[in-house]
Amino acid sequence: DIQMTQSPSTLSASVGDRVTITCRASQNINTWLAWYQQKPGKAPKFLIYKASILESGVPSRFSGSGSGTEFTLTISSLQPDDFATYYCQQYDGFPYTFGQGTKVDIK
Amino acid sequence: QVQLLQSGPEMREPGASLKVSCKASGYTFPTFGISWVRQAPGQGLEWLGWISTYDGDTKYAHNFQGRMTLSTETSTSTAYMELRSLRSGDTAIYYCVRDIGAVAGLFDEWGQGTLVTVSS
Questions:
Q1: A-chain residue closest to B59, CA distance
Q2: Where are the beta strands (DSSP E) in chain A?
């Protein structure tokens, strides 16, 4: 199975900060990577697919990059609505696997 | 709009079985597959399995092969997840998700989740 590792596990930041989350795959997944945002008590929300393509309606302050085994999710200017947990997920092949999550909280 | 409406919370004893339903609306059901993802309390996301709503083909995560059965009922646009031989480690929120991947694996719409509690 492909292992997905996110760093950091927790990130403390302030409104307006630029935030970067890293996701590493245990083997080459090309750009078959998605990102999700989850708020407490809610289902995850689909943000990005194919490593860098924003889902419709996702604010442009979110961006994704990377290919192969290393990927990043960047929030250019953190907004109050962005405090949440973020998960990466590979869909290169079965079984699909998620990173362990990165919690972005208020500094 | 697209909606996935799941059945309500369930409580079972160890060794029992359960079946969770997921009724889709707002799109043509056979167009996209359905995956199931779970989240144990305070933990991350775990993919469980996928079913093609077109031909019923299924894929399961290793740990659930033989213990889980996914099915669909096209006439009612409903997907089902049956899990047998429940144990305390199965306590989690179970989500059905619309899977728009070319093969599978891309989850654009999520159900509200079904809390499953396994306890004696």
A1: A94
A2: 4-7, 10-13, 19-25, 33-38, 45-49, 53-54, 62-67, 70-75, 85-90, 97-98, 102-106
